[in-house]
Amino acid sequence: NPFKKEWAILNVEDLNVFENGTVVTPEMLQESGIVGKIADGVKVLGNGDLETNVTVKAHKFSKSAAQKIESAGGKTEVID
């Protein structure tokens, strides 16, 4: 199916490796080995707990991921 998207998936708990205030980009996620190839984009899921406040730039966020990032003091930024 040519319309099926191939997402690089990460969970909010994977973001704990970044320090408070970090702006996390797909490139950083790939460089640090948290996601493999990015393909059609990065999708953040809400599994686990987030203890750092980071700004996350990704292509898609689940509702629970966005809530956890925001309640930890961070921000979500949807990119194309």
Give me a quick take on this structure.
The chain has 80 residues and is an alpha/beta fold. Helix content is 19%, strand content 28%.
Features:
80 residues, alpha/beta, three-stranded parallel beta sheet
* Morphology call: globular
Provide mean pLDDT, rounded.
94
Work out the number of β strands.
Answer: 6
Rg estimate, integer Å: 12 Å
Give a written overview of the molecule.
This protein is an alpha/beta fold and 80 residues long. The protein is 19% helix and 28% strand. The chain is built from 2 helices and 6 strands. The protein has helices at residues 26-31, 63-71; strands at 7-11, 23-24, 41-45, 55-58, 60-61, 75-78. It has a 3-stranded parallel sheet. It is globular and about 40 Å long. The two termini are 21 Å apart.
SSE layout and pairings?
Blueprint (H helix, E strand, L loop, with lengths): L6 E5 L11 E2 L1 H6 L9 E5 L9 E4 L1 E2 L1 H9 L3 E4 L2
Parallel strand pairs: 1-3, 2-4, 3-5, 4-6
